TrEMBL record:
Keywords: Oxidoreductase. It comes from Dioscorea alata (Purple yam). This is Short-chain dehydrogenase/reductase SDR protein. Its EC number is 1.1.1.145, 1.1.1.51.
Length: 268
């Protein structure tokens, strides 16, 4: 992936935390942010993978911090670690996620629903809370980005528990816009369609190529395969000054799926 657009480093001098950055969309975003000049804190529970990603980016540009986003104390400690180590926090990308139970509502295990909500809703709330507090304290006009999903826009694009939790992520973003805006802090969501990540491959039992084939078949925009790098590019835009007057927006990356009436579609 190119390190910059026409030689321009869009995040030069900025510091970012990305949760769930040891693999998948988070990893792609961490690599892209670093390529554009940011210093990145990879926050995840996959310690071995996270350390490896940080090392491959380069320890002058990235570090790993163990962080279970469902534990508010760990999220707070991750923000504090970042500010102490690098002197500032400009970008929070709340990206950690799980697919959760794949059963429908009538067969849903509510204990598993609670766990899904804990990661997506509690984890996102903790990320927003502590990042915004740190940005307010330092007077930083920061950017907070939350990974949502097309499942929050159209029924049957994801399992029920996942869909509920992603609706809540967008709700949290909407609820925070005015409060954060008073301090010059922007907050937005990105909502991708199906991507062949390690998580989606594990849950479906498919290879990345098989997941991509299924998503392409369901997709509307033909001739293009949605990959983690495409989602990372959207996050880069929202993290950079190119979007300095955009807040409260859900940037959908779906090739038009959610504006076309479709039935019996399943994309995770």
């Amino acid at each position: 992936m190119a390190s910059s657009d026409h030689g321009m480093l869009r995040l030069e001098g900025k510091v970012a935390i990305i949760t769930g950055a040891a693999s998948g969309i988070g990893e792609a975003t961490a690599r892209l942010f670093a390529a554009h000049g940011a210093t990145v804190v990879i926050a995840d529970v996959q310690d071995q993978l996270g350390e490896a990603v940080a090392a491959s980016i380069g320890l002058q540009k990235a570090s790993y911090k163990h962080c279970d986003v469902t534990d508010e104390k760990q999220m707070e400690e991750t923000v504090d670690y970042t500010v102490v180590k690098y002197g500032r926090l400009d970008i929070m990308h709340s990206n950690a996620g799980v697919l959760g139970p794949i059963e429908g509502v009538m067969d849903m295990d509510l204990t598993q629903l609670d766990k899904t909500l804990a990661v997506h809703v509690r984890g996102t709330a903790a990320a927003i809370k502590h990042a915004a507090c740190a940005m307010r304290a330092s007077g930083t006009r920061g950017s907070i980005i939350c990974t949502a999903s097309v499942a929050a826009r159209q029924g049957s694009l994801g399992p029920a528990a996942y869909t509920v939790s992603k609706h809540a992520v967008i709700g949290l973003m909407h609820a925070a816009v005015s409060e954060l805006g008073a301090h010059g802090i922007r907050i937005n969501c990105i909502s991708p369609f199906g991507v062949a990540t390690p998580l989606s491959c594990l849950v479906t039992g498919m290879t990345p190529e098989q997941v991509e084939d299924v998503c392409c078949e369901m997709g509307v925009l033909k001739g293009v395969v949605l990959r983690a790098g495409n989602v990372a590019q959207a996050a880069l835009f929202l993290a950079s000054d190119a979007s300095e007057y955009i807040s409260g927006h859900d940037l959908v990356i779906d090739g038009g799926v959610t504006v076309v009436t479709r039935h019996n579609v399943q994309a995770n």
